[in-house]
Amino acid sequence: MEISNFSSWFWPSLSLLLSVLWLWTLLRQRKATPTLGSACRPVEAEDALKAAYTFQEAEVTWDDEDLACSLGLPARLAQEVAQALVASGWAEEDIEGSMRLTEAGETRASELIRAHRCQSLWPTWPSVWERCSWQPGF
Questions:
Q1: d(CA 46, CA 111)
Q2: Same-domain status, 124 and 93
Q3: Which range has the worst mean pLDDT, 38-52, 67-81, 99-113, 117-131?
Q4: What pLDDT is recorded for position 31?
Q5: Are residues 54 and 77 in the same domain?
Q6: What is the pTM (predicted TM-score) of this model?
Q7: Are residues 91 and 24 in the same domain?
Q8: pLDDT per residue over 68-114, tens digit each?
Q9: How many domains does the chain have?
Q10: Which domain holds residue 74?
Q11: Does a structural domain hold residue 137?
């Protein structure tokens, strides 16, 4: 077999295979990412998740009104954010209306808190990146 014959079918086949794998990976990641709803921005959901984590660590029951009060959000927006947390699987609501974080919600909240702490320490203490799990991408 000549090298030119090998190259004529191998590289296009490899390119096609890698393209299919890349698209499959993108579709899987898209399906795995929770949706937060149209009225709720990711920043508001992350702030609510961190506030809920604080409530849960203090062993205090919380609901959308508590989120509104702690985040300074209008009641309607806090209710939509709380519903988005439930829809994403990060929180659960019981019969009385009080909420609690799921295991996935606690994990995501602790990741956010850790990442934000690392980001806030960056200007004052550059060696903190050695101890943080999140690294800047530059």
A1: 11
A2: yes
A3: 117-131
A4: 59
A5: yes
A6: 0.56
A7: no
A8: 888 888 888 888 888 888 888 888 988 888 888 889 888 888 888 88
A9: 2
A10: 42-130
A11: no
